[in-house]
Design a protein that fits this description.
33% of the residues lie in helices and 21% in strands. The chain is of the alpha/beta class and 239 residues long. The strands form 2 sheets. It has a 6-stranded parallel beta sheet with strand order 3-2-1-8-9-10, with helices on both faces. Helix 8 links the parallel strand 8 and strand 9. Helix 5 packs parallel to helix 9. It is globular. It binds nicotinamide-adenine-dinucleotide (NAD).
Length: 239
């Protein structure tokens, strides 16, 4: 069977072998922190220094990591795919972006960071977003508004993920949905597979082990992303 409209969802697992720690490690902490201490609007209001420091460290760490074979295989797929291809990542790192910069995608491809990006900052007053590579100060004056500060452009728990209308529209017409390296624990990302199923799409999961939502998938490919993703892409391109 050939497919025309592809949606791929990625999570922290695709970046794990690049050296970016995943979220749901055995201890349930993200880099030693409880999510309610570093990844909620309440945490930012209560302790902005801790929250800015946490994301400053994550941002700095991007300089020490590189895209891996799984990011590169998806970039190759995006360069050679003839139909529509929406890549939705929950990751706030820039490893997909770098892989696609190395291998430019065909027209019909787009990438959405539904949970924001470490390399962007957002004004708390105007909502305007800008590129950001440096550390952010505790109360970093916004260049956009006299009453605003710059905060990380990260979707915290309790906030609305970005570009959901674009994702919904792509899922309505997609005929192949692939989920890679995500635990299926964070909504609404974990519900995208159900939307794809309702649209009649074939659904495939690639993960180290079956995720919480594994039963929603027609096919499961289990093992490290740097092995399973290039194999899957090769198979898809040979159709
Ligand atoms: P998660 O940490 O909850 O789950 C990661 C999943 O990846 C697990 O199911 C695990 O079995 C799998 N996995 C681990 N190593 C793998 C490998 N080598 N190959 C294939 N699969 C592997 O991640 P999530 O579901 O993306 O949710 C975490 C949330 O935290 C996201 O919303 C994201 O924004 C944020 N986060 C982002 C990053 C990043 O940008 N790289 C890192 C940590 C957390």
């Amino acid at each position: 069977m050939t497919y025309n409209s592809l949606v791929i969802l990625t999570g922290a697992g695709i970046s794990a072998e690049s050296g970016v720690p995943t979220f749901r490690a055995d201890d349930g902490l993200w880099m030693g922190h409880r999510i309610e201490d570093v990844a909620t609007p309440e945490a930012y209001a209560r302790d902005p220094a801790l929250v800015q420091d946490f994301y400053n460290k994550r941002r700095r760490q991007l300089g020490e990591v590189q895209p891996n074979a799984a990011h590169r295989a998806l970039a190759e797929l995006a360069a050679r795919w003839k139909g529509d291809f929406l890549l939705v990542t929950q990751n706030v790192d820039d490893l997909h972006d770098r892989a696609h910069a190395e291998t430019p995608p065909a027209t019909g491809f787009s990438l959405i960071h539904m949970h924001g990006e470490l390399l962007k900052a957002r004004c708390t007053a105007s909502g305007r977003v800008c590129d950001w590579v440096e550390d952010l100060d505790v109360r970093h004056d916004s260049p956009f508004h006299p009453d605003g500060w710059l905060r990380p452009h990260i979707v915290w728990f309790g906030e609305m993920p970005l570009a959901m209308h674009v994702i919904d529209a792509a899922l309505e017409r997609c005929d192949l949905f692939v989920s890679i390296g995500t635990s299926g624990a964070v909504y609404p990302a974990a519900g995208l597979v159900q939307q794809a199923r309702r649209a009649g799409a074939r659904t495939v999961e690639i993960n180290l082990e079956p995720s919480q939502g594994a039963r929603q998938f027609d096919e499961g490919l289990y093992g490290p992303a740097t092995e399973r993703v290039p194999e899957f892409v090769e198979r898809l391109l040979q159709r």
